[in-house]
Write a structure and sequence with these properties.
mainly alpha; about 45% helix; about 0% strand; 7 helices
Length: about 260
Amino acid sequence: MEDNHFKYTNSVIGLPLFFVLFLWFVYWLEIRFDFDFVENGIFPRTLSGLQGIIFSPFIHADIEHLYNNSIPLLILLAALQYFYTKQSMAVIGYGIVLSGLITWVIGRDSYHIGASSLIYVLVSFIFFKGIQTKYYRLVALSLAVILVYGGMVWYIFPKVEEKISWEGHLAGLITGFVLSIIYKTPEYKKIIKYDWEHPDFDPMQDKFMQRFDENGNFVNIPIVELDDEIPPYYSSNYSVDYTIVENEKNESKPES
């Protein structure tokens, strides 16, 4: 796959905007019509709690909870759509389902809501997939993600903060790692512009590199060969003799 594989499309901005706006729309419905969607979240190991596997990422407790999830989702979804276009929808869909199912299995007896599990799916997938590809752009993306969101790893452990669903975070981290293994990406390679970028390049066979010694000094400077003298357009085989004639002026007397 060539280096110009990554191309910007409207979906890079459209997907994260649509997703986050939908979260805000759901929250607006809740406060506008006095709905309580919390009971539609994940309640572990109960039949009714299975509905939360689909609904929980779109339900938030308050506006602070929603705001804290909105900013990372905008950034991570845009990165996912730009660098992993073909895998993005599958990662989002299966990420929600698998992380929700794991939360349903290991979670404490309480309602688990919020899109934070999806955020952990995205962070985990982008980080591990970039490392696995060994492609410099994706590795740089992985390092950027871990630099910005690396502190989130503490919230996969219990009792860090009682109100936070560490089970959902851990489920998202595991899901992202699994998806990074399942979904393969093309073999990325940089476009070769110069001969010395080829893996089989031999400097000793390159005419330019042969002009340098081990210390980088010019050696074996090529002799400049002059082109043959261009013959005149008109030519003759006969010799030409030239005679020098002195300039003589005729003297004359003026008439009276």
